[in-house]
Amino acid sequence: MPHHTKFSHNWLNRTDTEGRNVNTWLKQGDSISTFKCTLCKTCDLDCSNQGWAAIVQHMKTKLHLENMPSLKNNSIISIESLKQPTSSTDGVISIPQLKLGNTKRPITFDFQEQVTKAEAVWALTVAQRGYSFNSRDEIGDVFRHMFPDSKIAQEFSMQSRKTSYVLSHGLGSYFHQELVKCLKRSCYDEGLVVTRYYKSILLGHATAAILKTAIIDSLKADGLELNQLLMLGRDSPFINLSLENIIDNEMKKIGSGLLKLGGCHLHVAHNGFKAVLWEPLHEYFLVYLPVNQKVQVQNNDRYERIKETLTSYVIKIRLQFVLFLCENIFDRFLTLFQQEAPLIHVLHSELSSLYRLVLLQFLKTDYAGDKVGGCLLDLDFKLNEKQLNNKHIRIGEETRKLLNHLTQQEREKVFEDVKKIYHTTAEYLKKNLPLKNSFLSDVQILHPSYRSVEYSDEIVRIARAVPGLLSEREIDYSRDEWLIYSLDNNIDEKWYIKKKKKDCSGTELIIYHRIDYYWNKVLNIKTANGFAKYPTLSKLIKNILIIPHGNADVERGFSINENLVPENRSKLSCLSINGLRSTYDGVKFIGNGSSHKVPINREIIKSIKMSYSLYKKDIQSKKKVSENSEKENIERQQAVEMCKQALQEEDELLLKQKTLQSELHEATSIIADASARLQLAIKQKDNLEIHRSTILIDGGNTKSKAVNEQLSKVTENLIQIQRKRKNNFGQQQQKRQKTLTDESIILN
């Protein structure tokens, strides 16, 4: 059974394994059974179960061992006692002792660095609040007017251009690089899963191949390995399938692969509700109004249409029914999965509950009430004998009360519509919910209530499902470690139960910790010799807990983007957008959402001081790219003109060649005809004809020789022009390739 040891102040007199006093970094936490390490900046660490042994375990952690040298480097010598040396009763002389004291002092800045710090805080505020750059042009003057006695205010200078490059080339770059460092370690912040902004790429309409290249190039530019990619999230199961397959194929080449879980399941539930909402709206706007309110539709008389809607009990009942569905079925699910905490372990059960709840609105309880998971998908919800009658079908009390205002025929029509809506919703959910997904079903065992040896097969299936994560030996280890975990007596109920309370009726309510909080406690358990007790489970479960349960975090990111980059800031460059978003993300996670709470260290000061030179270099690089592009365009235009001229000359030469070939053919025909006449004349001994034929042959030969000479020159000129045109084209291609290479180097 777990103990309940309190933090003992006597522990502060102890030393660590190297003989250093632990009071230089150890202090009691916020509760009587927790402690904190100021060196590692930890939150409350539990010692209620292991007592001093928990502190010893922390001393042996990698982070603590890495931080200890900084304690030695920043320590000072302090005198423990200023009393004169005295002799004790046993003859031992007591003298003042020297000891190393904790001197982790605040960073001290010179005056100019203090000015830079103030400018840093202001830039952080601009990013966090979404202020436009131009609207803060006179902020320096405002501060000088407000604080005339402040030397820092006198030197403060943050006009729009400076704010822009400080964020794009300074703070944004700093926070992005800090994020990359974290990504190379883990996706956890003090043991909890966090969602971070990585990068924005402006592509417009892009194919899957272009998206693949953008993703892989971005990871490569930051030194991140492709096999670190766990999965790709998307809205619908049918969107970006090509991208997922292309990335998966690339990863398979390096012995890895993507975990494929389909699209965002929140969208499935949301679209199921849209199916509910669509029918009444469709009926009203496309059927009811055109038939019953022709004049108003034609005249666009909004008042009459709205008045008719408000006075129509049929429409009011339909909308009241939609409200009932929203409040009693979909709201809880959609609200639950808007959380940032990892919920992948409850996704399957909650989706199952959602679908069953929908079915129970119009089906008999004995047919659907005891079904879960994939068994629900096997139900035929259209069976007539399983349908609830109009008296028992669930439409909400408010909706049912309003039925009293309708005729019997109108009521029957309303119930027909209700059943149609339920069937449409159930059909959509049945088609799209992953209730037969064995992986989602298996990961439910991560909940503390499943801590049992009977689920060892599930942990093995989970280990096999993540491509390239664990070796075959590690998969075997995962079963062994699960069995040990199932029987571990060191796991405290307080690790997963945050508190218990009773409601107004006296029923006990249990509030649980986040699942990553619980597993952080479990996975930090050490063996007697200080090694991690569950190294394989740690590797596996940390990867499972970062699987998104939906796209809510991404949607929140889009909202932040819209706030930081509204329509009036559409001219912001991609670099500025990334700088703003990375800085906003840094303020959120490092400063808990407050710009003044972000610790300003020397790296941040350096990033701001370097931002102008980087900005200037970037401007020069872009100018060079622009000049090269302009030069290339001029050369291309010249090449086009030369090509046109060459083609024109080529056409003229081809025409001349054709004419000469025709003349050559005529001369050859004359020679052939005259030769035939000459042969006949010789045979007939006709001297006059012989003379005439000879003259014709001589004339033809002369003509043929002259034409051949011209034809040879024309052909030679044609070859030269064609070769020149080909060479010019090749040179343009080489220049274009070199320009693209130079641009790539500059941008990188």
What report would you give on this structure?
The chain is mainly α. The chain folds into 6 domains: 9-67, no CATH class; 111-200 and 554-609, no CATH class; 208-262, no CATH class; 266-436, no CATH class; 440-546, no CATH class; 634-747, Four Helix Bundle (Hemerythrin (Met), subunit A). 60% of the residues lie in helices and 5% in strands. The strands form 5 sheets. Strands 1-2-3 form a 3-stranded antiparallel sheet, with no helix packed on it. Strands 4-7 form a two-stranded antiparallel ribbon. A two-stranded antiparallel sheet has the order 5-6. The longest helix has 83 residues, at 602-684. Mean pLDDT is 84; it is low at 74-104 and 743-748. Pfam families: Dimer_Tnp_hAT. GO terms for molecular function: protein dimerization activity. Residues 725-748 are annotated as: Disordered.
Most strands sheet: 3 strands, antiparallel
Number of helices: 26
Apparent shape? extended
Mean pLDDT: 84
Q: How many strands? A: 11
Topology:
Elements: E1 26-28, E2 34-37, E3 45-46, H1 52-59, H2 62-73, E4 76-79, E5 86-87, E6 93-94, E7 98-101, H3 111-129, H4 139-146, H5 151-155, H6 160-185, E8 188-189, E9 192-193, H7 208-221, H8 241-252, H9 265-292, H10 294-299, H11 302-311, H12 313-336, H13 344-359, H14 365-368, H15 374-377, H16 397-402, H17 408-432, H18 438-442, H19 456-465, H20 472-486, E10 497-502, E11 508-512, H21 515-523, H22 535-545, H23 552-564, H24 574-590, H25 602-684, H26 687-747
Antiparallel strand pairs: 1-2, 2-3, 4-7, 5-6, 8-9, 10-11
Helix pairs in contact: 3-6, 3-24, 3-25, 6-24, 6-25, 7-8, 9-12, 9-17, 19-20, 20-22, 21-22, 25-26
